[in-house]
Write a structure and sequence with these properties.
8 helices; 5-stranded mixed sheet; alpha/beta; globular; 18% strand; 30% helix; 4-stranded mixed sheet
Length: 251
């Protein structure tokens, strides 16, 4: 079975279209989305695109916030800006958009053709962060009753392959808001879109981490002209050096 993994679209339909154009060229059995679909400059367009795929979607932290209308506590000026921006994006959604978000599930079992578990942050919470530096003790608390050989999540916006005990933890990165810097301590966004393909066949497992370029300049222009708060600050978080010269690449 061959499955495309997308996560953290964050309302960036330009990036999503670039990723899906590549996935459409692959012999896939299915696509799985790991959440946070709408929180970005093109929230409704991104929802419509993912909805059209008919794929299973895991509930992300911002998906849940848009359903409830409640922003998370802001501990610093950056978080305050982020909350104000996200609240504005959430206001663009219709009742039908929110009804679709409510169909997202907390986690998915065995959706990749092998014994596996898909989630957003962790099975414990969509707010959990899993990095290469997360301690084994922290992971044990996040997975107290889960030891599937394949654990798949998003949320960090950073691609990752990590072995933990007998499990492989996979994070396909972010389609719409791939991080270069060490969020949440700084905001530094890469000018590319990330995704992955997992192949499980005859007891073998293959994970293909990928990235591709998209029209970042068009996204930032759209953001500046949209009326969203802190648009210049948000645009300034993107690291554009070399973006216009880059060719689509895979990692």
């Amino acid at each position: 079975m061959r499955v495309g993994l997308i996560s953290d679209v964050h309302g960036n339909c330009l990036a999503l279209d670039a990723v899906l154009a590549e996935l459409e060229q692959e012999p896939l059995d299915s696509i799985v989305c790991l959440g946070d679909v709408a929180a970005g400059p093109q929230p409704r367009e991104s929802i419509a695109r993912v909805r059209g795929l008919g794929c299973p979607v895991v509930m992300g932290n911002w998906d849940a916030a848009f359903i409830s209308g409640e922003m998370p506590p802001a501990a610093d000026p950056v978080s305050e800006k982020v909350n104000e921006i996200h609240a504005w994006w959430g206001e663009q959604l219709t009742d039908d958009d929110r009804a679709y978000l409510q169909t997202f599930v907390p986690q998915l079992e065995d959706a990749l053709g092998t014994d596996s578990l898909c989630f957003h942050g962790s099975p414990r919470s969509y707010d959990d962060w899993i990095f290469t530096t997360t301690s084994d003790e922290e992971l044990e608390a996040m997975f107290p009753e889960t030891h599937s050989p394949l654990l798949v999540g998003g949320h960090t916006h950073v691609q990752m392959l990590r072995r933990w005990e007998r499990s492989l933890i996979v994070n396909p990165g972010s389609v719409g808001l791939a991080f270069l810097g060490g969020w949440p301590h700084q905001v530094s966004v890469a000018p590319w879109a990330e995704y992955a393909i997992v192949t499980a066949e005859d007891g073998r497992l293959h994970v293909d981490m990928r990235r591709t370029t998209f029209d970042v300049a068009a996204l930032l222009e759209l953001s500046r002209s949209s009326g969203m708060p802190h648009a210049e600050w948000w645009a300034g978080c993107w690291v554009l050096e070399g973006a216009t010269r880059a060719r689509p690449s895979r990692t």
